[in-house]
Design goal:
Layout: E1 3-9, H1 18-30, E2 34-40, E3 46-52, H2 56-66, E4 72-76, E5 78-80, E6 86-88
Antiparallel strand pairs: 1-3, 1-4, 2-3, 5-6
Helix pairs in contact: 1-2
Organism: Mycobacterium attenuatum
Pfam families: SCO4226-like (PF14026)
InterPro entries: SCO4226, SCO4226-like
């Protein structure tokens, strides 16, 4: 399944709760999307999230249903390791 990096910008500081993330995960599952993990910026207004999904459209649909922004969606196909080696994802 393809992996995507999603950048999100929030107007207010993000304070994720178990209830909120559980609801997001349920919506994602209905759209065939799996949230792997997120990085939260120091000001808590931006996240960078990794997802497995069949397409960017599936991520956008899930985000819209969950009331989340999805400013940028980029498919990632490889990674660079600390020793400089590259690897497929």
């Amino acid at each position: 399944m393809p992996i995507f990096m999603v950048e999100r910008t929030y107007a207010e500081q993000l304070e994720p709760s178990f209830e909120a993330t559980d609801g997001i995960n349920r919506i994602n599952a209905q759209e065939g999307v799996r949230w792997l993990y997120s990085f939260l910026s120091a000001d808590k207004r931006k996240t960078y999230c990794l997802y497995e999904a069949p397409s960017p459209e599936a991520i956008r649909t899930a985000a819209t249903r969950a009331g989340l922004p999805a400013d940028v969606i980029v498919e990632v196909t490889g990674r660079v390791l600390p020793d400089g080696a590259s690897a497929d994802i």
